């Protein structure tokens, strides 16, 4: 299916076949492809926390306002951003790997690494939160498209108590939770939704 086709057909699905299992090979392959998404300075800050323990899912259900997809979907993924990805050491390491793989020479390696270090060094926590949100959101959309292409249904969720979720899953302040994504085989089609006419959302050169 083309990307355009998936965009036309995809719906947020809220009811899943809880007996359907997605193999860890398929899941790894979806995540591996999603990780090819564009990301700021290629610092690769997105983390995919797969929650497949039914007990944890049951604990998360009330935290996510009893949204049944939390327990019914084959997979529940907490999409996280890792603040440690901004560390100088990580930036240097990633660019060294690119150099060793032969993707660029020493001078481009140093230029890219130094540009990235400079870009992040004076940013506030709030700025870094926005950087993580950008990267994790792009990876999330990729994952959603890939999962739909593979024949699964998906839903994105921000309807959960972030603090309680982090407590239950022991997620430290090192990580920013951006959203939850559930993936599985839907048992009830998602309802259709309208979209603004393109003329309402597309502007040229200025917006008022
Ligand atoms: C960031 C984000 C958070 C969302 N959170 C929830 C949620 O907690 N529960 C829910 O039922 N749908 C949630 N949705 C799904 C939206 O309601 C849905 O995408 C929108 O109504 C458009 O419908 P469609 O996805 O079927 O095209 C969320 C979507 C996004 C992008």
Task: Tell me what the structure shows.
- This protein has a single domain (3-81, 132-201), classed as NADH Oxidase, CATH 3.40.109.10.
- Helix content is 47%, strand content 14%.
- The protein contains nine helices and four strands; from the N terminus they run H-H-E-H-H-E-H-H-H-E-H-E-H.
- The chain has a four-stranded antiparallel beta sheet.
- Helix 2 (24-34) crosses helix 7 (125-149) and helix 3 (54-63) runs antiparallel to helix 8.
- The longest helix has 25 residues, at 125-149.
- The mean pLDDT is 97.
- It binds flavin mononucleotide (FMN).
Q: Which secondary structure elements does this structure contain, and how are they paired or packed?
A:
Blueprint: H1 3-9, H2 24-34, E1 46-51, H3 54-63, H4 69-72, E2 75-82, H5 88-100, H6 106-121, H7 125-149, E3 153-157, H8 162-168, E4 175-184, H9 198-201
Helix pairs in contact: 2-7, 3-8, 5-6
Key structural traits:
NAD(P)H nitroreductase, 47% helix, binds flavin mononucleotide, oxidoreductase activity, NADH Oxidase, alpha+beta, four-stranded antiparallel sheet, single chain, Nitroreductase, globular
